[in-house]
Amino acid sequence: MTPITLTVNGKKHTVEVSPDTPLLWVLRDTLGLTGTKYGCGVAQCGSCTVLLNGDAIRSCVTTIADCQEKSVTTIEGLSADSTHALQKAWIEDDVPQCGYCQSGQIMAAAALLATHPRPTDQQIDDAMQGILCRCGTYPRIRRAIHRAAAQKGGKS
Amino acid sequence: MNTPTNLTRRDFIKVSSVAGAGLVLSFYLPSKGEPLGAAAAAPAFAPNAWLTIDTNGIVTITVARSEMGQGVLTSMPMIVAEELEADWKNVRVIQAISHPTKYGSMSTGGSFSVRGSWQNLRNAGAAARELLIAAAAQTWGTETSACRAENGTIIHTSGKKLSYGELASKAATMRVPTSLKLKDPKDFKILGKRLRKLDTPSKVNGSAKFGSDIRVPGMLFASVERCPVFGGKVTSFDAAKAKALQGVRDVVQIDSGIAVVATSTWAAFQGRKALTVQWNEGQFAGQNSAAIWKSFEEAAKSKGSIEDYAGSAENALTSAAKKVEAIYYAPLIAHATMEPMNCVADVRSDRCEIWVPTQSPQQVAGEAARILGFPLDKVRVNTTLLGGGFGRRLQTDYSSDAVRVSKAIGAPVSVVWTREDDMQHDWYRPCTYNVLTGGIGKDGWPVAWLHRVVGPGSRGLVVGGSTPPYALPNFQIDSHIKDIGVPIGAWRSVGPSQNGFVVESFIDELAYAAKKDPFEYRRHLLAGSARLRRALEVAAEKAGWGKPLPAGVGRGIAAVESFGSAVAEVFEVSVEKSGKVKIHRIVAAVDCGPVVNPDTLEAQVEGGIVYSLSAVLKDEITIARGRVEQNNFDDYRILTIDEMPKVETHIIPSTESVGGIGEPGLPPVAPALCNAIFAATGKRIRRLPIRPADLQ
Ligand code: FES
Ligand code: FES
Q1: Superfamily in which the A85-151 domain is placed by CATH
Q2: What is the pLDDT of residue A149?
Q3: Fewer CB atoms < 10 Å away: N or C end of chain B?
Q4: A 104-143 residues inside an 8 A Cβ radius of B
C-alpha cells in the first residue's frame, strides 16, 4: 500500500495503513494520540472532531487518503501547555464531567472561534449541535465559549 | 464551637511513617449499607483509605470509588482537606487499585460515595490535623492548646509557624487522640466552596486516560461479533475472509461470540464485517415489544406479590367518592455512555492485569479470577477514568470479553465495543406496565391508592421508589416480575427513575380530580415529610407558582426523595402545533444536606435533568425478532446543545444528613414535564417517551 504523508500537530508523519482507514484510528492506534475519541463511528456524535486544514471534521468518517499532504490539529496540538483561550475558559468554568466528549467539543469550538470570533448563541448552537454530551455539560460549554471569545476579543 | 466525636477504638485510625519521611494515616470507610459504626465491631482493623503527607507538605488521598464525571476524585479529598486545614493547592488524589477486602466495597453507585464516607473522611482529616498539632507542640515544648492549624501550617499563639511538610515525619510518631473535634460547618473554608475538579486540566488537553486510551506494550485490539438476539449462541463460523484482511491477527471464539484480533481497532471492526457466523438464536428469537407489553397486560389482571401497604386500599376504594384509574408505561431505555464499553486485559500464565472503566472493580476481578481459575490475589484491576457510567458500568460483561480474548491469544488486548454493540447489548432500564387506581373522598383528599407494577429484572429495579411519600391512609403496591429475555440493569436513579414518573403523575391526576391546586395538594399531603415538603415549597416559590403565564404555557411540579436527597422541580412548557414540546424554564430545588461543592452539585443536577430529558423526549429501546432495533445515535437520539433548556438550581441550606447528588435530580423530570404539558394542553402523558403524535 502507498504510504500517506500528513502533518499532525505540526509534525510530519508518514503512515502505511489501508487508504480507507478513518483518520480517527490512525490518530488513536497508529500515532498514539488518544485524546481524540470514538463515540459512534458514523458522524453522529462529534467526539472524534479534529481540525483538517483548519476545518472541524469528523475523523471517524474521514479516510486517511483524504488527509494526504494536509494538516491535522488534535486536542493534543491545540496548545503546547493548555493555554489556548478555550482550554483556559474550559478550566475556568469547570466544564467537563466525565470528559469523554470534551476533546470534540473544544475542537469544534476552536473552528467556530476561527470563523466567528464573537459568536452569538445561535452561531454556537449551529456549530456545536452535532457534538453530543451525554453528561449534559451544554450550559457550561456555551458559557466557556463566550468566555474564551471575550478573552481573545480583548487582545485583537 | 467544635463538635467532639469519639473514636470507638483507638485503632480506628492508624498512623505510620512513609519510608521514614512523612505521615501515612490509614482509616476505614464503611461500604454501602454498612452502619457507620461497623468498623468498631470488626474483629481486625482493616484500613481502607489512605492519607499521606510528605515532607514537602503534599497531601495525597487515595480514593477507592470510580470517577465518571460526578466529581468523586475531588469531593472526597475536599472533605478530608477541610478537617485537615490543608492548603488545597497541595492536595493530590490517587485512584485506588482494586483489592478484595482492603477498601470494603469499591462499587460506585446509589449516589453513595460522599454520603457513605462523609463522617469517616472528616474524622481522618481531623485526626491528621491533631497529630500535626501535637508534633508542633512537642517541637516547641508547648501545650497543644497554644497551637492551631491553618492552611497547611501549624501556628503558635506567639506567631511562629511550622509547615505540614516540616511536621509530617514527627506527626507519624504521635498517637491519635481518642476524641476528635470536628469543625463547625460555619467555619468551613473548603466544603461548600466552588472548587474546580482536580482532573479537569487533563480533560481539556487530551491527556486524561479513559479505558479505551490504555496502551500496553505488545497490545492488540479486538472486537467481538455477538449474536444480535439475546441469549443466542454460535453454531458455526467461517473466519477465512476476516483472517485474510490486512492487520487481522487472529479470530477466536469466546463465550460472548467471535472475537477478531487485529493490530488496530479499525482492522478489528473490518474483520468482523468479513465474518460469516451461524447462530442458534435461542428461546427469545421471537420476542418483540408488542408481545412484551401484551404479556405485562395479561399479568396485571391478577394480583401480584405485595410490596408495601398501609391500611386497606381495596376496601377503602369501595367507599371513595370518586375513582381515578390510569395505566402508565415506562419504556426500556439504554445508558449510551459516551465512551462505549471497553477493557484492556493482560492474562499471563499465573496472573492477570486489567485496565477498565468500571463502577465495580471488585466484581471485574472476581469474574476474571473465576474465568481464569486464578486466586483473587493474582488479578489486579486498575480503574481508569470512565467516559460515563450511569449504572452501565456496574456490569462485567465487557471486562470478561477482554479477559477471555487475552487468555485465548496469550497477549494483552484492548476489546472495544462499537456504538452498535453498546446500544444493542446494554442492561436496559426495565420497561414497566403500571395500573394505578386512586380513590378520593368527598373533601378531595385521597382515601385509597393502588399501584400494580409489572416489569422485568429484579424487584428492586422494578419496584424501587414506588411507595408514595404522601400521607395516604390506605395504599397498596403489588408487583409481577416477568423475564422477557432482555438484560435489565440499574439506570441512573434506578427504580425512582420510572416510579417517580408514575407516582408524581398520578398524584397530579388526583389533585385535578379533586379540583385542587397540584402544588397545594402535595404540600398538604407532605405534612409528615418535612424535607421533601420544603423542597417542594422552595421550587414553587422560586418558580413563581401561581403567577400568571402567557397563553399556552403550563406549569408542572414534581417532588421525589431518593438516594438521601429531596428534589423538587417545576417545568414551564408549551406545545407547538406539530406536537413538539417546548421547555421554557426549569427550576430545581435540592436538599442534599451539607453541600461539598455547589459547582459540582449544579453540574450533577443539570446533567441529570438532561440525561432524563433525552429519555423522556427522544427515543426508547424496542425489541423485534429478539433483538434491539436501535443502532446508534441516529435512532437513539440524545439532547443536543440547541435543545438544552435553562435550568435554575436552588440549593436549600440544610442541616439534614448528607445525601447523594448524582441521581436525585432525575426522578422529578418526567413527571414535572408531563404535568406541565397537562397544565398547558389538558393532555395527560402516561406513556414515555413523549411522542409528538400524542400531542398534535
Ligand atoms: S465518532 Fe465520529 S462522530 Fe461519533
Ligand atoms: S462530559 Fe461526559 S459526555 Fe460530555
Answers
A1: [2Fe-2S]-binding domain (1.10.150.120)
A2: 97
A3: N
A4: 106, 124-126, 128-142
